[in-house]
């Protein structure tokens, strides 16, 4: 077969030395192709699971399963879709049933398949999964999804929905409620593409075999406003919100009984074509939640009570920031911007790919906050792309190795906002907005001084207002969110004289 040259080199077992024998495809693996080579698959993998790896990125046009070799080839509808897929999985390792899976470009430009029984099965799976798939290039009407769970035989918790929907993007906020005696949820992503991918892949799927069917539509709301973090509502960008101590209400008669273990089969994601693809986790750095044992109530993950589902495993605090402006980005500007959401320890701009940088935060919660608030925001006219890096720390250059000042250590910087436990900065974390909050203004500095300072960089100042009680603080409204981001980077810690350095953050109110 056409694929002998590629796969004949690989031992069938996953005995850890695949990569040594894998020379054939590794050479070509950097050259983009519509065909993706996937290896180290679990031996009981289904066609649907392999296709699901590709669906968030575009249509899958062909599939070849080599189960004996724990491999598969997936052909995407365009090279661009394939590049997005390989790029995504190079930063977020896909995990299928606790197996890390390796994804790379194949040497082959297209798949030629025969009509063996295996191939017929693959074609049937493709038809079943791609009929619901419309063109993802169409802009999503909203970043907020409305989810109705029909045929609720077992309880579905906010955490379970988070686990399922996190596979398609960072879930920012989620609210669950019962309306017209139906269990429903509203769920907000940072961007329309994630909402679109989740709707396409999950609409009509069952969470458990034969029940708990997801019906998903775009909400008319553009944003969710969450006041409490508890089992009914959560804002992952605001871990500081109070819990509001609401009692869990059992609206559904089955819920009370369903919390006893054993009602849900031990492996609720059994591999039927209609059920949610089995315990399929594309989760940052391979945090796979075990196939939910017994009842869903048994999520016992550290931090689960406070933050809900920890989307990033502890210890993972390095972000990969891409799509930067290579001529304009500096370690300092990333340090100041990411420092709004946590204490930045180190920044490294990649030597031979200056549009990429690694930013190490002081913990995984801060990394999650920075990622959910800044992903998609524009810096130097380009939208930032932020994912979790597979690195656990940023290495400093070795003594005597020149790196053109691209790596900086900020661990002892006096500018960290969150060093002091209980600092009020924790409760003032807001998404980037056109209005900036200024503080630490000395008495001699007047409105015109600040307006002139902020327009000196060419940005537009639309409005200004001192706080009535306290002239040490003010709000200043810039022409756009992008101008506000650049002004914050430029003027945070600006020396205003009299030993006062200006403090700048994003405001939740406008003037």
UniProtKB/TrEMBL annotation:
One of its GO terms (biological process) is negative regulation of gene expression. GO terms for cellular component: nucleus. Its main location: nucleus. InterPro entries: HnRNP-L/PTB, HNRNPL_RRM, Nucleotide-bd_a/b_plait_sf, PTBP1-like_RRM2, PTBP1_RRM3, RBD_domain_sf, RRM_dom. Residues 1-30 are annotated as: Disordered. Transmembrane segments: none annotated. SMART domains: RRM (SM00360). Residues 34-108, 145-221, 317-391, 434-509 form the RRM domain. Keywords: Acetylation, Activator, Isopeptide bond, mRNA processing, mRNA splicing, Nucleus, Phosphoprotein, Repeat, Repressor, RNA-binding, Ubl conjugation. One of its GO terms (molecular function) is RNA binding. It is found in: Nucleus. This is Polypyrimidine tract-binding protein 1. It comes from Mastacembelus armatus.
């Amino acid at each position: 077969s056409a694929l002998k040259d590629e796969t004949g080199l690989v031992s069938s077992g996953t005995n850890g030395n695949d990569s040594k024998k894998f020379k054939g495809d590794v050479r070509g693996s950097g050259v983009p192709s519509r065909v993706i080579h996937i290896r180290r698959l679990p031996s009981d993998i289904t066609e649907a699971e392999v296709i699901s790896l590709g669906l968030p990125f575009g249509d899958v046009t062909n599939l070849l399963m080599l189960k004996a070799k724990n491999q598969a080839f997936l052909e995407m509808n365009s090279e661009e879709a394939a590049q997005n897929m390989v790029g995504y999985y190079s930063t977020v390792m896909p995990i299928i049933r606790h197996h890390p899976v390796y994804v790379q470009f194949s040497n082959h430009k297209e798949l030629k398949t025969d009509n063996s029984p295996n191939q017929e099965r693959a074609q049937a799976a493709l038809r079943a999964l791609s009929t619901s798939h419309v063109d993802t290039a169409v802009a999503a009407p909203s970043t907020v999804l409305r989810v109705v769970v029909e045929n609720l035989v077992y309880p579905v918790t906010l955490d379970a929905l988070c686990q399922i929907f996190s596979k398609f993007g960072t879930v920012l906020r989620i609210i669950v409620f019962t309306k017209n005696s139906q269990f429903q949820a509203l769920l907000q992503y940072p961007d329309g593409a994630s909402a679109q991918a989740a709707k396409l892949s999950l609409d009509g799927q069952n969470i458990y075999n034969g029940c708990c069917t997801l019906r998903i539509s775009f909400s008319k709301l553009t944003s969710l406003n969450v006041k409490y973090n508890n089992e009914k509502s959560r804002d992952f960008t605001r871990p500081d919100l109070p819990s509001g101590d609401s009692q869990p209400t059992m609206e559904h008669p089955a819920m009370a009984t369903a919390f006893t273990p054993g009602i849900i089969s031990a492996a609720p994601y059994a591999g039927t074509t209609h059920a949610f693809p089995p315990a399929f986790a594309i989760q940052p750095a391979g945090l796979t939640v075990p196939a939910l044992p017994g009842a869903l109530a048994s999520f016992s993950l550290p931090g689960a009570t406070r933050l809900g589902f920890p989307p990033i495993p502890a210890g993972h605090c390095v972000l990969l920031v891409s799509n930067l402006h290579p001529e304009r980005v500096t370690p300092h500007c990333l340090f100041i911007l990411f420092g709004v959401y946590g204490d930045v320890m180190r920044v490294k701009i990649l030597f031979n790919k200056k549009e990429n940088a690694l930013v190490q935060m002081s913990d995984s919660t801060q990394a999650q906050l920075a990622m959910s608030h800044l992903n998609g925001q524009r810096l130097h006219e380009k939208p930032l792309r932020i994912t979790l890096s597979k690195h656990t720390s940023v290495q400093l250059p070795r003594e005597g190795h020149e790196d053109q000042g691209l790596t900086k250590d900020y661990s002892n910087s006096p500018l960290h906002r969150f060093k002091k436990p209980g600092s009020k900065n924790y409760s003032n974390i807001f998404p980037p907005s056109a209005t900036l909050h200024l503080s630490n203004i000395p008495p001699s500095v007047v409105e015109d001084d600040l307006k002139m300072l902020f327009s000196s960089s060419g940005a537009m100042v639309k409005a200004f207002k001192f706080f009535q009680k306290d002239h040490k603080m003010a709000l200043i409204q810039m022409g756009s969110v992008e101008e506000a981001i650049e002004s914050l980077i430029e003027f945070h810690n600006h020396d205003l004289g009299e030993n006062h350095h200006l403090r700048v953050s994003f405001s939740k109110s406008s003037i």
